[in-house]
Amino acid sequence: MIYASDLDRTLIYSLSAIGVPEDTPGLVPAEVVDGKVVSYISQQALATLKELAAKIVFMPVTTRTIAQYRRINLFQETVIPDYAITSNGGNILVNGVVDQDWRTAVGKAVERGSAAAEEAESIVRAVVREEWIISRRYCDELFYTFVVHRDSLPLEEIARMAQRLGELGWRVSLQGRKLYIVPEAVNKSDAILHVRRTVHSEPMVASGDSLLDKSLLAAADYAIAPCHGEIFAEQQAGLVHLEYPFTERPGVFAADEIMQYVHRIYTHSTALGVGPPP
């Protein structure tokens, strides 16, 4: 079995996203930067993940850059996956090493299918004023991340901007204070399907919370999302009707329910003789 999961706000949570006080019992540091804990995972979710990771193919799938992924202590020291997908699908790490063939293929697909990065940025800059931008990064030479003052953003103009960028082969996702501008070819589903063909393991379970995770969840045989984030907001607004379940709890302890769901799928699959034996 394969379990492919988004990380931030799905399995691990920053201080602004945990939804409970930092001293709440049951939280385990997932990421420590300069001696300071910057993200947590729930103790119960971690225990289930560790148990399953010894039996299945677990793949982190994240919009983080390679460098940002590598600073997550949890996946460098405690649960060390053979495969990890970073840069929103733009890079695949195999035993910690970048798959250069995949990276080259993605770069060529971006050139074929999307307008130049400079053109996309100019469209964003025409809508998002400089004083609304806290920081801007061109991540792994693939996509843009703008940290913004969200309350200042004119959401109707952002929606029109997203439509225009969509016509040029770029997608827009607003997650908290982060505004992502991503080429269509840089996506999690293509990367996960590439790895899935490599490892030959069935079935695949996925979890994620943002619009950038929708293609990942759609590519899986089973999927679950937390009851927070863009996917849940779309469902609540009646914009989409999704077949997969949502957790009952938001915040860091949503990961407990996510991991319980994955464990149930694993137990059911092994009982049917699908995937690796327990």
Description:
With 278 residues, the protein is α+β, with helices and mostly antiparallel strands. It has helices spanning 43-53, 66-70, 74-78, 100-113, 117-127, 155-167, 188-199, 214-219, 230-236, 254-271, and strands at residues 2-5, 13-14, 27-33, 36-42, 57-60, 83-86, 91-94, 97-98, 133-139, 143-148, 170-175, 178-183, 204-207, 222-224. The protein is built from ten helices and 14 strands. A hairpin with a 2-residue loop joins strand 7 and strand 8. The N and C termini lie close together (11 Å).
The helix content is: 25-40%
* Overall pLDDT metric: 94
Q: Walk across the major sheet and give the strand order.
A: 5-1-13-14
Strands, count: 14
Q: Strand portion, in percent?
A: 15-25%
Number of domains: 2
Q: Could you list the spans in which at least 5 consecutive residues all have pLDDT below 50? A: none
In terms of structural class, how would the helical and strand content be classed?
alpha+beta
| Number of continuous helical runs | 10
What form results from the Cα inertia axes? globular
Would you tell me which CATH topology of the largest domain applies? Rossmann fold
Which class of the largest domain in CATH terms? Alpha Beta
H/E element string? EEEEHEHHEEEHHEEHEEHEHEHH
Gyration radius over CA: 18 Å
